[in-house]
Amino acid sequence: MGKNVVHCGSNGMGQAAKICNNMMLGISMIGCAEVLNLGIKLGLDPKLLTQVLNISSGRTWASEVYSPCPGVMENVPSSKNYEGGFGTALMKKDLGLAQAASSDVRALTPLGSMAHQIYSILCSHNLSEKDFSVIFKFLKGEN
User: Considering 18, 80, 93, 137, which one is annotated as catalytic?
Assistant: First the structure.
């Protein structure tokens, strides 16, 4: 479980913060996977590109702590055939909750909607049980 406790207000506000956080996580993981895939296809070493990202404005939790690209970091799911970690089906569920909430309050979340669709596609390609960083493998066409 998480190591930080933050009081978010009345009942339900913690859940609201959680789905907002996980929506950001899903969106940023897709972005990180796209960038690494593009960089590799352009001839960049993924470890070098990750170093550049992490000292630049492109830094994200995914690039800094949880790379979706196998071999960039040790002891993350991408370096373990995407085993363990936070499942793709769970990300799809949380993105679905975020989309339902955004509809309820009429908040426009086009990137959240796209991320939900992408993780739904991953699940339909039998990647539900893999870590959500498997998006990198999917974008490479290795599914």
Answer: 18
Q: What whole-number distance in Å separates Cα of residue 86 and Cα of residue 95?
A: 13
Mean pLDDT (whole number) for 91-97: 97
pLDDT 10s digits, 122-142 = 999 999 999 999 999 999 987
* CA 113 – CA 10 distance, rounded (Å): 27
Residue 70: DSSP 8-state: T
Quick one: CA dihedral 114, 109, 34, 95, positive or negative?
negative
* Cβ–Cβ < 8 Å for 37, 140: yes
Active site residue 18: yes
Three-class DSSP labels, 121-138:
HHHHCCCCCCEHHHHHHH
